[in-house]
Amino acid sequence: MPLSCSNVSVAYGERKALNQFGLSLEQGEIRALIGPNGSGKSTALHALAGLIRPVEGRVLLGETPVATLSRRALAKKLAFLPQQPAAPDELTVAQLVRQGRYPHVGLFRSYDSTDEKAIDWALESTGLGGLADRSLNELSGGERQRAWISAALAQEAAILLLDEPTSFLDIGYQVEVLDLIHRLSREKGVTIVMAIHDINQAIAVSDRISLLEKGRLRFDGLPEDLAGSGLIQDIFRVRGRFVQVAADSPPHFDVELARWQRPMV
Amino acid sequence: MNAVASTRAGSNAGWIVFALVAVTTASIVAAALLGVADISHNDIMAVLKGNGSDEARAIILDIRLPRIVTGVLAGIHFALAGFLLQAITRNPLADPSLMGISQGATLSVTTFLMFTVYIFQPGSNTLAELPVAWLPAAGLAGGLLAGGIIYLLAFRLGLSAMRITLCGVAVGAVLHAIAIGLIAGWGSARIEIILEWLSGSLYARTWDHALFLLPFTIAGLLMLPVIYRPLRLLHFDATVAQSFGLAYRRQFSIVLVVVCMLASSAVGAVGPLVFVGLIVPHMAKFIAGRNFVLSLALTIGLGAIVVTLGDLIGRLLGQAEEIPIGVVTAIVGVPLLLALLRKTT
Å from B289 to nearest chain A CA? Predict the structure, then answer.
């Protein structure tokens, strides 16, 4: 188990954003965190990344409690990409991606060939090789998102936590990011946890799904089992059903929209 | 380091550094040669060779040179402190003189002068009779104290960069109000003395001032390689920086301590030179572009140049009644800042 947590609760003042949350990951799996707005997906990711101290429960990296690790030691093993991260405007893609090597080089060690290789690999696998010298503010939303993913990749961490990596991207870039995530998991054995809103994408790309509602874990299991559970309709308060589009395709959630008649004149 | 970043500015970087050294040298030489007291160039050359008349020696070695060196060091302090503060607060308008550190130093210097003058030397009426040797130390203590207060307040509220900035401005306003209140209540002829110090002046600075600043300058410059990489990461949101492996709070605090040390020692020695810490980093970034190392180097060099030239202008324009450097930097600084803001946005 590369990363796990049990009975984790996080409180913001009086409100419990996360209540007795538990998760255990297999190496190389893709885990989607889904749930309505404010259900605690982002909080769960922050807790897993050691960025929020839970009021109860603990997060383990292997056998080690995350809270006991230094930020640098943790960053070598685990990369976290927050939702809509901000960077100084004039920063170039290459400069951003170089920051991903900080846990490895630290304060003084100079960048060696291993670091340069990791940076090149991170740029290439996100298709940013040609944009390395552009400033971030010259990029499109999709390119900027890929630059951030690239910086997280440069950390060469075995665990990658992504908070809504596809939000605000058009469908083309969304697929590109999901393909990249899948490739990292299968080719490099990277363990990935991502919060995501699109249920069909979550089902299509992930090995297991955790469904949150009001800070509580309501489902933890295979995408097919989630489709059969009826929980989606219940928790998201939508009418719809799961359909099989093709014989070997994952279940697809088909929403039913309200239909109104024009008044008779 | 930073191979990709420096390729664009790389070819120019050599020339820029060369120009920087040349201009720094030229302004220091000009500041040594020019002045209200008329000394022939031959006399000055003689002094520099170790000869010369007593009068020339006194003017060059005891008046002009210590003043120039103090100015150069203070310029480096303010510029570097501004650069670091703008980086860690992620606020391009951050400046030690706007964020409480200068005001803390001002208050402690005012309080110190008031007490020492009233209690120990009730008859004294001129700056020369005041315990000026202790002013830098008093300023330093006040600046560090203010920095500490800001840090604690912001820490309690959650230590976001924006809160640090706002806390600094608020604490600065309070400290400034108290200092002004004290000065107003003081109400004697000695107000001139404190007012001159408040406007930021290099008048009558001695080797003692330069020697007071030097250890802080050296310590600050030696810290640069240590804080260089964390400084780049402190430009990001706390969560992002932490995800990249930065011990955010520790590194933020280390840089803030360096800022307080540089700014408050300089305020103690020469008074609050407004705008140097604000403008010089913008000038440096404007010239250096994306090259971070170069903009850091330029900040240091331009800090020295701006203060040296600003003081020279004040001396020459004002003649015997010289214009304090703080006034010159403020008057020249505002239009310069506006011009830079227009070009960069």
Answer: 8
pLDDT band at B157 (very low <50, low <70, confident <90, very high): low
Domain that holds residue A132: 3-255
Tokens of A42: 């982002």
Q: List chain A pLDDT tens, one digit each, 265 residues.
A: 789 998 899 998 888 899 999 999 999 999 999 999 989 999 999 999 999 989 999 999 988 998 899 999 899 999 999 988 888 877 899 999 999 999 988 888 888 888 889 899 889 888 888 888 888 888 888 888 889 999 999 999 999 999 999 887 889 888 988 998 999 999 989 999 999 999 999 999 999 999 999 999 999 999 989 988 889 888 999 988 888 888 888 888 998 888 888 988 7
The whole model's pTM is what? 0.85
- Hey, where are the domains in chain B? 10-344
* Among A121, A123, A103, CA closest to A188: A121
Question: Of B118, B113, B108, B172, which is closest to residue B141 (Cα–Cα)?
Answer: B108
Other Cβ atoms less than 10 A from the Cβ of B68: the count is 25
Cβ neighbours for A257, distance < 8 A, ≥ 6 positions apart: none
CB contact under 8 A, B244 and A75: yes
Q: Flag whether A263 is in a domain.
A: no
Please state the length of chain A: 265
Binding-site residues on chain B for chain A (CB distance < 8 A): 1-5, 7-8, 90, 225-226, 228-230, 232-233, 235-237, 239-240, 242-248, 289-290
Q: What is the DSSP string of A85-116?
A: ----TT-BHHHHHHHTTHHHHTTTPPP-HHHH
| CATH of segment(s) B10-344 | 1.10.3470.10
Tell whether A13 is covered by a domain.
yes
CA angle A87, A91, A95 (to 5 degrees): 105
Report ipTM (2 d.p.): 0.87
Nearest alpha carbon to residue B181 among B270, B111, B120, B134: B111
In CATH, what number is assigned to the domain containing residue A15?
3.40.50.300
Quick check: is A56 in a domain?
yes
Tokens at A83, concatenated: 């939702």
Q: Is residue A70 part of a domain?
A: yes
Pairing of strands A191-195, A159-163: parallel
A85 contacts B244? CB cut-off 8 A: no
Number of domains within chain A: 1
